[in-house]
Design brief:
Rossmann fold, globular, seven-stranded mixed beta sheet, binds S-adenosylmethionine, alpha/beta
Length: about 230
């Protein structure tokens, strides 16, 4: 493609994207504020996809597992439960979410090795090839296109060769839901972001992940997509 056409395409896609820049400072504030009530949203909309993601992830006891963007820690509890003899690390941009996640995990599984930190997913403070498995649920909707690719490259970097990556996205396969989500995202972009499900599996491949399975999950009217990949 000639350079000018390439540029046109980039400009058009940036223009169409409802989140041209990651608004991390606002996202951090919003999720800090809602950290106390967020478990309700997980219970009603995310728990079925979490369960399926754990099943598809291939995570076994004794692994080094990283969960990126733990939220209030419901998936983290599942991961620690499955990995009580291993090491489970969580991170979230919101310090309150990270603190809450760690507090609950240590209360439920005092003997398990668990750590949680307030960290931005775009810059992971771990060496290359550190983890056997990386899990990330409902984060990419909140990052700009460039930052999604940055974060995916970071997930790939910290995962060991042949390690497993499990991603949960908000599904884009229900028309009415998409309309409601677009409206919600335009009112509160720092909380809702925008849907990216249709584009991400392709970006995963361009970040050198090998996509191994994809599954759609519905909980009430809320659609999710679980994608698994290996490094
Ligand atoms: C929609 S919630 C999902 C929470 C949880 N993963 C779940 O499945 O319920 C998004 C989470 O991503 C966190 N987050 C947003 N931007 C982030 C970033 N750049 N790095 C790390 N976490 C981020 C938010 O603080 C929030 O807890």
């Amino acid at each position: 493609m000639p350079l000018s056409k390439n540029l046109d395409y980039e400009i058009i896609s940036i223009h169409r994207d409802k989140l041209p820049h990651t608004i991390a400072a606002r996202t951090k504030r919003v999720y800090d504020v809602v950290s106390g009530v967020y478990p309700l949203s997980t219970f009603f909309f995310h728990s079925r996809a979490h369960k399926e993601a754990l099943r598809m992830s291939g995570i076994r006891d004794g692994m080094r597992v990283l969960e990126v963007a733990t939220g209030s820690g419901e998936m983290f509890q599942r991961l620690v439960n499955a990995n009580q003899g291993g090491e489970t690390v969580g991170l979230d941009l919101s310090p309150k979410m990270a603190a809450r996640t760690l507090q609950h995990a240590r209360k439920s599984y005092p003997a398990a090795m668990t750590h949680c930190h307030a960290v931005d997913a775009r810059y992971l403070p771990f060496r290359d090839d550190t983890f056997d498995a990386v899990v990330c649920c409902y984060l990419l909707e909140l990052l700009s296109m460039d930052d999604i690719k940055l974060a995916l490259r970071e997930f790939h970097r910290v995962l060991r060769p042949d390690g497993s990556f499990t991603l949960v996205l908000i599904g884009q396969n229900v028309g009415t839901f998409n309309k409601i989500y677009r409206l919600a995202g335009s009112v509160a972009p720092a909380f809702w972001g925008r849907q990216v499900d249709e584009r991400v599996p392709q970006w995963m491949q361009s970040c050198k992940f090998r996509v191994t399975a994809q599954r759609e999950v519905r909980q009430a009217f809320y659609p999710s997509r679980v994608v698994t990949a290996t490094k």
